Amino acid sequence: MALGAIVVGFLFTLWCYGDAFPICWADELYFVQPAQNLAEGKGMGTTVLDDLLPGIAKRTYWQPPLYFLALSLWGKSFGFELSSARWFSRLQGALGLMLLFFVARRWGLPAGIGVFCVLWTAMDLPFQHSANIARMDMMALVWVLAAMLSFTEGLERCGAGCFLLAGSFSGLAVLTHLLAAPIVVILWVTLTLQKKWKGLLWFSLPLAFGLMAWLFYAVQDWTAFSGQIAAQISRKIALTHRLLMWFSFAKPPWILVMVLTCLAFWLKQLTIAPWQIAVLITAYLTVGIGGERPYIGWFAPFGCLTFGFLGAALLSKPSMRIVLWVCVFSLFAFQSARMVRNAVWFPREHREAMGFFQELSQTLPKGAKVVVGGTGPYPAFYLWRARRDLRLYTISPTPMDAKAWGRLIHQADYIVASWNPIEERMEGIPLYEPLSCQRPSRLWQVRTRYGTDHIALMPLKPQQP
């Protein structure tokens, strides 16, 4: 009953957020467009990236293909609007909450602590963010939790069917997002160390089949595949040190929870198997070095599960119960205050962003070739849906081919990007020097809870006003 109420409340909260939290991200266009192209029989290319990444206009390789396949099926029935794509993620987030409860119970936590883990996860703003964006994080989470659940059953029942399910879910997780791969490796190593050879065979078969299917898709254009994956790896390396520092000081302080849990496990105060603590630590380290902020929300179920084991250990000690309850009430007060504060700001930010999107759409002439760079409120998805006449391109978040970028800027009519009013130049634009002689034709100031974003529209052809 409590679990159902939490899930319904979670979905209601995300429905209330709508398109306001978060305001449209660049990732959503990058991932919805190839799904729609696939549904329309045009291949699985991301045409807004032109050829800034090798071959991506025809085939999208920088992420595994399963999410695009699933979203294309969803979109055929429910459309490819932003709200529809976000509902796809919301439902997966709700399923993830239910699976989290079953994993907590199967790993030996009391029902009350299992409900606490689900409630805390549902109230976590990064988790709400990840579940309300058209990305593959929630789908990967569902597959990973399902793999953990069936893997636990397999270890305790020695059932081949359970290991076959665990391997199938693991393969689906890896084909959705490589974020799941380190946890899958831990499960594989666990079977190897425990010398469960028959279980290892059943676990490995579907996993190998899934990887072979991905390899078959990759060899359709190996140059594009290797080039896009290399660009992703370069980006991850560039972001890792910054995100690891940010994640270490995230709210709630996951690093403190992980350190205390590891210490309690070393002192044999936790009723948790070594492979289970290895999964939790691996999830933490994977997210910490993963290089993407949405990963923080993906980690929330694992962090809450970790805290659940720590809380169960404290409950067994009467002298520590008061400390536990103080922590619990403090956490819920903190989460509630954040939700209330942001609920006040989200509608304001959404109004500001939509006003900017509409004005930009009205300003651009018919048939213009427009490049959208990094901005606060990101207008590319809105322009893609509202102005079908535009030839729309975006800057890749990964390192780009310099020649392709130069050709795109030379051919484009306009560029939209963040503007530095002090230095009077665009920000986040590679190879800025060729643009230095141009001046913006329009400037916007969009207010957010973090400050004011300055955004410029710059003509790239001398004859344009």
Topology:
Blueprint: H1 2-17, H2 26-39, H3 66-78, H4 82-106, H5 111-123, H6 125-131, H7 137-157, H8 160-176, H9 181-193, H10 197-218, H11 222-248, H12 254-266, H13 274-288, H14 294-315, H15 321-363, E1 369-372, H16 380-386, E2 391-394, H17 402-411, E3 414-420, E4 425-426, E5 442-448, E6 451-459
Parallel strand pairs: 1-2, 1-3
Antiparallel strand pairs: 3-4, 3-6, 5-6
Helix pairs in contact: 1-4, 1-5, 2-3, 4-5, 4-6, 4-7, 5-14, 6-14, 7-8, 8-10, 9-13, 12-14, 13-14
Mean pLDDT over all positions: 85
Instruction: Estimate the strand proportion.
Output: 5-15%
Helix count, per DSSP? Answer: 17
Q: Determine the fraction of residues in helical runs and give it as a percent range.
A: 55-70%
Total beta strands: 6
Keywords, please?
465 residues, alpha/beta, six-stranded mixed β-sheet, 17 helices, 6 strands, 7% strand
Descriptive account of the structure:
The mean pLDDT is 85. The protein starts with a helix and ends in a 6-residue tail after the last strand. Helix 2 (26-39) packs across helix 3 (66-78). 43% of the residues are buried. Strands 1, 2, 3, 4, 5 and 6 form a six-stranded mixed beta sheet that branches. The chain contains 17 helices and six strands. With 465 residues, the chain is an alpha/beta fold. The longest helix is centred in the last third of the chain and has 43 residues, at 321-363. The protein is globular and about 75 Å long.
